[in-house]
Task: inverse folding
C-alpha cells in the first residue's frame, strides 16, 4: 500500500530513537511490564516462551523492519522473552504512541489489523508444520519463510540466505534438537535442495523445498484493497 507523506511522518515517530544492542541482549523478559515496543532497524531477534524443563520455544524470529513486542501491548505484562540473536539497532517507543495512529490515521490502523492477521495465519502455518510434518519439512519451511520475509525489504535478494541463527536457535524454533537440525540440513543438501556455506544457506530448489514442506508465503499478497482511501489533503 502506498503511504501518504502524513502517514510516513507518523511512522517515523516510531523510529525517532535508536539504541545499539549486542547479541544476547534481552529487550524484555517474560512477565516483565510491557510498557513499550521496538522497531528492529538491523539485526535479528527472537520472541520465546520458557518451558517448565528450562528449554524454550521460539515463537517468532524478528527480522529488520519488524515491530517487536506487540503482543505485550495487548496485555498487562510481557508474554514472551524478547532477545537479540545478533547485534543490531532497535528503536524503542512507548505503546501510547499508537494512540495517535488509531485515533487519527484510520488507514494505518487498518493496515496494522491486516498485518496482524497475516502474522496470525503465518503462525498457524508453523503450528501445523511443527505438529504434523516431519523434521526435514520443518527445517525447509523455516528456511523458505526467512527468505521470503527478507525479500520484502530487500527485493534484490536472490537465493543466498545469510543465517546468523545457531543450530540450537533453529531447533528451538522448529521443535528439534540441535543434532537433529544438523542431520536435516545434511539431508536437504544431499537431496540437492540447499547448499551449506559458512554462515549462509543457498536455496538451490525453492519449489522443491515448498513441495516437501507445504510452505505458503502469506506475506506476498496481503489484501489492502478494502482499506479506507487516503484523505484528500494528505
Result:
Amino acid at each position: 500500500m502506498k503511504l501518504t507523506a502524513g502517514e510516513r511522518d507518523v511512522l517515523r515517530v516510531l523510529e525517532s530513537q535508536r539504541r545499539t544492542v549486542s547479541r544476547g541482549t534481552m529487550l524484555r523478559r517474560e512477565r516483565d511490564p510491557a510498557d513499550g515496543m521496538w522497531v528492529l532497524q538491523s539485526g535479528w531477534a527472537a520472541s520465546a516462551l520458557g518451558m517448565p524443563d528450562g528449554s524454550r520455544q521460539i515463537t517468532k524470529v524478528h527480522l529488520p523492519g519488524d515491530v517487536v513486542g506487540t503482543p505485550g501491548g495487548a496485555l498487562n505484562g510481557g508474554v514472551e522473552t524478547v532477545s537479540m540473536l545478533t547485534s543490531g539497532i532497535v528503536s524503542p517507543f512507548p505503546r501510547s504512541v499508537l494512540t495517535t495512529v488509531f485515533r487519527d490515521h484510520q488507514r494505518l490502523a487498518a493496515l496494522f489489523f491486516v498485518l496482524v492477521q497475516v502474522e496470525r495465519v503465518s503462525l498457524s502455518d508453523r503450528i501445523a508444520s511443527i505438529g504434523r510434518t516431519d523434521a526435514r519439512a520443518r527445517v525447509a519451511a523455516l528456511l523458505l519463510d526467512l527468505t521470503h520475509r527478507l525479500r520484502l525489504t530487500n527485493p534484490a535478494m536472490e537465493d543466498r540466505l545469510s543465517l546468523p541463527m545457531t543450530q540450537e536457535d533453529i531447533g528451538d524454533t522448529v521443535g528439534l534438537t540441535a543434532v537433529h537440525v544438523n542431520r536435516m540440513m545434511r539431508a536437504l543438501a544431499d537431496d540437492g535442495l540447499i547448499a551449506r556455506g559458512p554462515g549462509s544457506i543457498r536455496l538451490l530448489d525453492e519449489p522443491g523445498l515448498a513441495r516437501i514442506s507445504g510452505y505458503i508465503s502469506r506475506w506476498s499478497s496481503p489484501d489492502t484493497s478494502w482499506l479506507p482511501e487516503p484523505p484528500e489533503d494528505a
Observations:
- Residues 49 and 57 are 5 Å apart (CA to CA).
- The chain is about 40% helix and 20% strand.
- The chain has two domains: 5-104, 133-213.
- Helices lie at 5-14, 70-73, 97-104, 106-132, 135-153, 167-174, 178-190, 206-213.
